[in-house]
């Protein structure tokens, strides 16, 4: 193909007559041919041309082709018709619209999430995945937890309980979504009826009074707990306990906080900021360790669905006495568990810190296998059983990670046995587990 160009026009009345001929070159793209003409003067207005193939002249009807240099080249915007394809786009936009309101407090976020459950279900698997991603962002502190809004702990736990109840009902009615719903529940935490949340508010006051620690960090933390309790409070409580156990080594306090993603800046960022470091007397040690250890149960009952001790206590039942204005809490055992199940769970608790992980892993799997039929039915208090299974699974993974060093010099038979245990645990957490079961045969 040849391009014959007869003249090039300048802007204005003057034009230059030019006649030249050039051949097209192959571009390497689908047999397309191109010709490149470099113009070193920006005043050129246009270029008429015709094409020739062999002896055949190709024109634009009876006229020359004309290339207008003044035509502005505009980038065609990318077609966004498929934007969001593979996602529940409308549902995700709804979540984004509500995020500003959800940032006010956990109460707002959980109530909004509960309101969205039906919409997520109607959007199918992609809708439930979208809800999970949103809640997962929250649990990993990627979203704002509280903004200029004070809310009582019992109001948070009630909203959380409402949300997890809705997820539990979907888990019962839509077995095809159970795997993702299980992940969603693990990111939320259990929640609880009003008395469970109220206990967080009341118990810290009793701890302060009984241990003569009404100022400093305990007062600042008390203000945060009363107005904006969150999963961070579990970490703060553990950091104070570790500090006391270390004979008041302040470095231990900060190590526990930092390992769990809480910095000094984060403590100061709360609406009710924590400025002070812990500072206690030696005669306060015994009482604080006892009372803070008990308080951890109340915190974990609301915020830590995957905590093993809390999950076991909820399923086996426990009672916390009231004291003065502090409400009492009584959690009854879950019905339908075998008579030997409490002993099995106690075995797990007794061996959870063992250096040799093998007996613990076997006990954890045995407990999960026994739970399996209850999780696939419509058991009473199914939510508590799901959280127990999540906690057993989490403890299993932690124990396996802890045993890596033990396996460095292990015989191949032992390594293969550990792999079989890991596969069995994975099969218990996976709905479509046929391939995993084949690997175990």
UniProtKB/TrEMBL annotation:
GO MF annotation: an example = metal ion binding
User: What UniProt keywords apply to this chain's record, in alphabetical order?
Assistant: Carbohydrate metabolism, Metal-binding
- Which Pfam families does the record associate with it? Ig_N_CWD1
Q: Where is the Alpha-glucan water dikinase-like N-terminal Ig-like domain?
A: 21-69
Q: Which domain of life is it from?
A: Eukaryota
Q: What is this protein called?
A: Alpha-glucan water dikinase-like N-terminal Ig-like domain-containing protein
Q: Which organism is it from?
A: Aegilops tauschii subsp. strangulata
Q: What is the lineage of its organism?
A: Eukaryota, Viridiplantae, Streptophyta, Embryophyta, Tracheophyta
